[in-house]
TrEMBL record:
Name recorded for this polypeptide: Bifunctional protein FolD
Record key words, sorted: Amino-acid biosynthesis, Histidine biosynthesis, Hydrolase, Methionine biosynthesis, Multifunctional enzyme, NADP, One-carbon metabolism, Oxidoreductase, Purine biosynthesis
Pfam family, one: THF_DHG_CYH
Positions that bind NADP(+): G168, R169, S170, I243
Organism the protein comes from: Roseiconus lacunae
Domain (Tetrahydrofolate dehydrogenase/cyclohydrolase NAD(P)-binding): residue spans on this chain: 142-292
Reaction(s) this enzyme catalyzes, per UniProt: (6R)-5,10-methenyltetrahydrofolate + H2O = (6R)-10-formyltetrahydrofolate + H(+); (6R)-5,10-methylene-5,6,7,8-tetrahydrofolate + NADP(+) = (6R)-5,10-methenyltetrahydrofolate + NADPH
UniProt-listed CDD domains: NAD_bind_m-THF_DH_Cyclohyd (cd01080)
């Protein structure tokens, strides 16, 4: 294999240790431990795992991690009422609603995310936080794209003047990722910015050629092994955001074996981008607590 493996698990552990140290200092200054509250609707197995992992990660970092579980058919009104209750609970610094909300029960995801107090919106999905990011003056950075920025930065990979292709235009990953990489340096954390970004999607005319033109390829489409070896420029950096369960195994959006023979660096699945999402959530929770207490 030619490519260097970008070890997201290791970088996430490094960030989690840094957050834990900062939490310790925050608490030593007389502040209460930061508190993150996750809301889980229904019993989707993957969502249950993610929420449990978030609570465990909180505990290890000295953050109080609470989970509110609602039945699948709780309904929009009850969910909104819970979000509003958490907004006014002074003991709660960060709120997240685990996505996706259950299908077939008429949940309006947009209305729920809009209702989260922007100062407690540690996922950075609310319109205020998305708008601040668009304007290059973010408050919270969305966790998965921020994790990717940290991984690139800590792996010594610069994006400045590079051609980056982000495949997938989701609100959680694709759109904010493209926005962050296109910003001027310094506005979205470390010096991972100033890229020339293409945001590709299902209607992109010649996706293979578009991908092949990229120095850095970020795949966030949710389709197993969709990015094949022939879509990768020799020596490109490949970041795989996909987590697809196929025959009881996790596979990314990239055909890893083929890509690793062509790329200079690549993230594995599992153990690549995924663990960074939770690390950056802890970072945002501490930030929220600091913003709310003025410390
Ligand atoms: N409210 C949110 N909902 C969702 C988010 C989010 O950031 N906020 N992102 C994803 C799910 N997610 C966190 O919520 C998440 C996904 C994957 C991982 C992870 O560590 N993956 C591991 C594999 C884990 C496994 O065995 O399944 C890896 O890639 O190594 C963490 C968090 C959608 N919903």
């Amino acid at each position: 294999m030619k490519a260097e493996i970008l070890d997201g698990k290791r970088v996430a552990a490094e960030i989690r240790a840094e957050v834990a140290k900062s939490v310790e200092q925050f608490v030593a200054s007389g502040a209460p431990a930061p508190c993150l509250t996750a809301v889980l609707v229904g019993e989707d197995p993957a969502s249950q795992v993610y929420v449990r992992n978030k609570a465990r990660a909180c505990e290890k970092a000295g953050i109080e991690g609470r989970t509110h579980r609602l039945p699948v058919d709780a309904g929009q009104k009850e969910l909104l009422a819970l979000v509003n209750e958490l907004n006014t609970d002074a003991n709660v610094n960060g709120i997240l609603v685990q996505l996706p909300l259950p299908a077939g029960h008429d949940y309006d995801e947009r209305e729920i995310l809009d209702a989260i107090d922007p100062l407690k919106d540690v996922d950075a999905f609310s319109p205020i936080n998305v708008g601040l990011l668009m304007q290059g003056r973010p408050r919270f950075l969305p966790c998965t794209p921020h994790g990717i920025v940290q991984l690139l930065h800590r792996s010594g990979i610069s994006t400045s003047a590079k051609k980056v292709c982000v495949i997938g235009r989701s609100e959680i990953v694709g759109k904010p990722m493209a926005m962050m990489l296109a910003q001027k340096s310094g506005s979205c954390g470390p010096d991972v910015a100033n890229a020339t970004v293409t945001l590709a999607h299902s209607r992109t005319a010649d996706l293979a050629a578009t991908c092949r033109d990229a120095d850095i390829l970020i795949a966030a489409v949710g389709r197993p092994k969709m990015i094949t070896g022939d879509m990768i420029k020799p020596d490109a950096v490949v970041i795989d955001v996909g987590i697809n369960r196929v025959d009881d195994k996790l596979v990314g959006d990239v055909d890893f074996d083929a890509a690793a023979e062509i790329a200079s660096a690549i993230t594995p699945v599992p153990g690549g981008v995924g663990p960074l999402t939770i690390a950056m959530l802890l970072h945002n929770t501490l930030m929220a607590a600091k913003l709310q207490t003025g410390r």
